[in-house]
Amino acid sequence: MRLLHHERTAMDLRTTPVHLGLGSTAKPVEGFTWDPEVLRAYSAAVAADGAEGRMVMIFDGEGPGDHGERHPAGDELVVCLSGSVTVTRDVDGVPERVQLGPGEATINPAGVWHVVDMEGPTSILAITATLGTDHRPRTDTRPIEHVGTPRPEEAP
User: Fold this and answer.
1) Nearest-CA neighbor of 110 among 139, 132, 142, 135?
2) DSSP character at residue 53
3) Which of 52, 102, 42, 104 is nearest to 75 (CA)?
């Protein structure tokens, strides 16, 4: 995994996310995967951006999401590019559902647990605060082991 500087070719946001950092920088993340070792390397490479860092990525999928997540360091923008998606947020123990069609978006507030369900083949664009993201299994009410990015209070 490495951050590229001054990339001038087309890139596929499905496989090469872009990190938005301090000073309005945008750097493609070459070799990104969801492997814990790669997540740690990414986290270290962008640590100086703290809570202001964002990842931009496209996800393709279909069916219910298998995990929930929350982003304590900042809001997340979810844009439906094609298909249909339902974002369900846990707001004080009450599910809040937002259904999106192509071109529609919603914002998941910082720290709020949410899951994403794709009805049929769907593509979404997510702009996510990278610092401190937590994941938990869909059926579990407790966060699973923290993997990847440090929590906001752990940031340098």
Assistant:
1) 132
2) -
3) 52
Question: What is the Cα 37 distance to its own chain's centre?
Answer: 17
Q: What is the spatial distance between Cα 71 and Cα 82, in angstroms, rounded to a whole number?
A: 24
86: confidence class by pLDDT, cuts 50, 70, 90: very high
Q: What is the mean pLDDT of the chain?
A: 87
Cβ(68)–Cβ(115) below 8 Å: yes
The secondary structure of 93-139, three-state, reads CEEEEEEECCCCEEEECCCCCEEEEEEEEEEEEEEEECCCCEEEECC
Q: Which residue has the tokens 């490479």?
A: 45
Q: Please report, for the chain, how many H helices and E strands are present, in that order.
A: 1, 10
Spatial distance between the Cα atoms of 116 and 64, rounded to a whole number of angstroms:
7
pLDDT tens column, 141-153: 444 444 444 555 5
Q: What global pTM score does this model have? A: 0.84
Q: What letter would DSSP give residue 34?
A: S
| Each residue's pLDDT tens digit, 99-111 | 999 999 999 999 9
Residue type at 137 in one-letter notation = P
d(CA 104, CA 79): 6
